[in-house]
Amino acid sequence: MLRAGLIVASLAALQAGVSTPALAQSYGNRGGSTLLVTPDGDLLDYTPEQGEVVISRDQMGRRVLIDRYGNVVAIEVPAETYFPRQREARAPAYDDYGAPAPGWEDDGIVTGAIPSPDAIDRQPLDEPLPDMPTGGPDLAPPTDQAPMRTVTPDIPVKSNLSQLEITALQVFLDREGVSPGVIDGKMGQNVNKALVAWQQMTGETIDPNNAEDILERLRLSGGLAITSYTITPGDAAGPYVAEIPEDYSQKALLPSLAYTSTTEMLAEKFHMDEAYLRQLNPGVDFTIPGTIIKVVEPGQTKTGSVARIIANKGLKQVFAYAEDGSLIAAYPASIGSADTPSPSGTVTVERVALNPGYTYNPKINFQQGANDKVLSIPPGPNGPVGTVWMALSRPTYGIHGTPEPSKIGRTQSHGCIRLTNWDATELAKMVKPGVTVEFID
Asked: Where is the signal peptide, in residue numbers (predicted)?
């Protein structure tokens, strides 16, 4: 009934040519009076910018946000009327292709799921490494709370696939070297961009509604999208840290900025969204060695020799090309913002550092809290630049990882090119000093 109402509202808005500006206030806050809920029942975790959506009303008088292709983005509902759907927790069954087996209906994630109050709020940081010349726009505190406009490729990508079928599509694209970002079973902008990049790479197209074709391509690319994995004693042992503090003086006291849990580590290992990993394994204790869990199988790491990189600031995507001009890989990225833009023109990769640390100098960097001394921040996947730093010839700029992979391609950086840790690591192993990096709009 809700979905039908949304479709009616969508058609009505398009026929009427509605051009109401996007909602200005912030949504998704449990303390607010209204929430934006997607057609799948999730909370919308960003605020669309003006011109990105039009607004109509459904038969109940609620405001409905619609994108330029006629897709319903979200519906505004009173916060007090929004409750999670409850369904029996049970593990999904899969057929030979990794798709849901007959008789098992995929309801998607629990409607209205809200992060646990004790979830770690790890603030992404984009500062360069200590041995880099410092200064410049990339040293200001991040502004992820101000969502940027996401540019959609000029093809309307829609899908009627189930969540697990979308997972199969994401896994196939990841195996092909066109990263969809975190694998979460959702059709979003990063998947759209990966589909376009795959077309550029191969000259072929994929119908995002043709599940049979997608599953056959998946089979030929390496088999099942979902596989079993046994948690090892090493997985359970870590080392892990209880939490990642925001204050740099507290960060400096930690032995490393390691993962905060087994689930966070495993999610990155298998290129997954942490919440989706938990969803596929309801009730599982990930800290017990020998536990068998369901994970996605992203396949082998892409290999090759990258001669040229293009950072497309408009698409929020990075393209890696071989010497002969062929596209080797493509990755969703967070690249600059209006206030702190990335450089323009062409620079080169100066050097590559894996598992980098960071030195905070208040005389050169931004003022962080009350810190007035030089601090050595230890390395780790939750460090300021994640697991990789590729220094560029323009001082303070680089290509690097992130402690929050689910935000890649959706939030702003402060001039640098931010990728997921696994994408940044994959790219770093194909890059050598002297590779050109061209920033285009």
From this structure: 1-24
Question: DSSP of 411-430, one letter per residue?
Answer: S--SSSEE--HHHHHHHHTT
Give CA–CA dist 438/42, Å, rounded. Answer: 37
Reported as a single tens digit per residue, the pLDDT across 255-295 is 999 999 999 999 999 999 999 999 999 999 999 999 999 99
- The two tokens of residue 327 are 């596209």
Q: How far apart are CA 198 and CA 441, in angstroms?
A: 21
DSSP E strand boundaries for 322-435: 327-332, 334-335, 345-354, 358-360, 375-377, 388-392, 398-400, 417-418
| Cis amide leading into 239 (omega within 30) | yes
Query: What domains are there in the chain, each with its CATH number?
Result: 2-81 (no CATH), 137-147+303-440 (2.40.440.10)
CA distance 21 to 73: 14
- Which 8-state DSSP code applies to residue 94? B
Query: Could you tell me the sign of the dihedral formed by the alpha carbons of 345, 349, 350, 353, in that order?
Result: positive
Phi, psi angle pair for 230, to nearest 5°: -100, 120
> In the structure encoding, which two tokens stand for residue 295, read together?
């994970």
Buried residues in 355-378 as b, exposed as e (16+ CB within 10 A): bbbbbbebeebeebeebeeebebb
CA–CA dist 323, 299 (Å, integer): 25
- 321's enclosing H/E stretch is strand 317-321
Token pair 């609620």: residue: 62
pTM above 0.70, yes or no: no
> Is residue 383 a contact partner of residue 403, using CB atoms and an 8 Å limit?
yes
- The encoded tokens of residue 372 equal 């007035």
CA atoms of 239 and 162, how far apart (whole Å): 36
Give the model confidence (pLDDT) of 297-330 as tens digits. 998 999 999 999 999 988 999 999 999 999 999 9
Q: State how far the alpha carbon of 3 is from the alpha carbons of 59, 61, 115, in Å.
A: 12, 15, 25
